[in-house]
C-alpha cells in the first residue's frame, strides 16, 4: 500500500469515527459535497 493510500485510509477512518451515527455520516458527506460544488462554481 502506498503512502497516499494509507493517508487516505487513515483520514477516512478518522472522519467516520467522528460521526456518531449513520445519519451523521450522511450529513457530513452531504456538507462536503456541497462545499465542493460551491468551490467548483466559484472557480468558473
TrEMBL record:
Is Ribonucleoprotein given among the entry's keywords? no
Tell me the superkingdom of the source: Bacteria
Pfam families assigned to the protein according to its UniProt record, in alphabetical order: Entericidin (PF08085)
Q: What is this protein called?
A: Entericidin, EcnA/B family
**Keyword Membrane part of the UniProt annotation:** yes
Recorded GO cellular component terms are:
membrane
The entry assigns this protein to a family as follows: Belongs to the EcnA/EcnB lipoprotein family.
Biological process terms in GO annotation: response to toxic substance
Gene source species: Rhodobaculum claviforme
* Signal sequence interval, chain numbering: 1-17
Keyword annotations of the record: Cell membrane, Lipoprotein, Membrane, Palmitate, Signal
Amino acid at each position: 500500500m502506498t503512502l497516499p493510500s494509507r493517508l487516505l485510509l487513515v483520514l477516512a477512518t478518522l472522519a467516520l469515527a467522528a460521526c456518531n451515527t449513520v445519519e451523521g455520516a450522511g450529513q457530513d458527506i452531504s456538507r462536503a459535497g456541497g462545499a465542493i460544488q460551491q468551490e467548483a462554481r466559484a472557480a468558473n
